Amino acid sequence: MRRKTVLMLIATVLLIAGAIVGALPTLMTPMMFDDPKALESPATVTLAISVATFPIVCLVALALSWLVFALPALAHFPYRYTWACGLTALPLINVSIGGLALAWISYFNDGFFS
Question: Residues 40, 63: contact at Cβ < 8 Å?
């Protein structure tokens, strides 16, 4: 049990660091839409949503994983620790979708957001 708690603490530090580091790109997402045609590009909108929601997803994943891991009402929940680890991986969805949108923009739009 002690090893699992240490791993959850490491995940906590990483998710808080991810939320802090992701705050600056979140503040810069409106600059993606400087060109009026950028709103017509689904890849640009997808990238902006992915970047803007990353810190929120990090904090929500952190809260949910600790709730599943430490809540006494879920003590008899099967695979409780597996669910907690899976919830800490939620920000990977944002990273993968953002990476795919950025690859789409780079390949098909020649790096332009419009």
Answer: no
Show Cβ contacts of residue 102 under 8 Å, excluding neighbours closer than 6 positions: 47
Task: Report yes or no: 94 and 57 within 8 Å, Cβ to Cβ.
Answer: yes
Residue boundaries of the structural domains of the chain = 2-108
Give per-10-residue mean pLDDT for the chain (114 aa): 84 94 93 87 93 95 90 78 89 95 91 80
pTM of the model: 0.87
* Cβ count within 10 A of residue 45: 16
DSSP 1: -
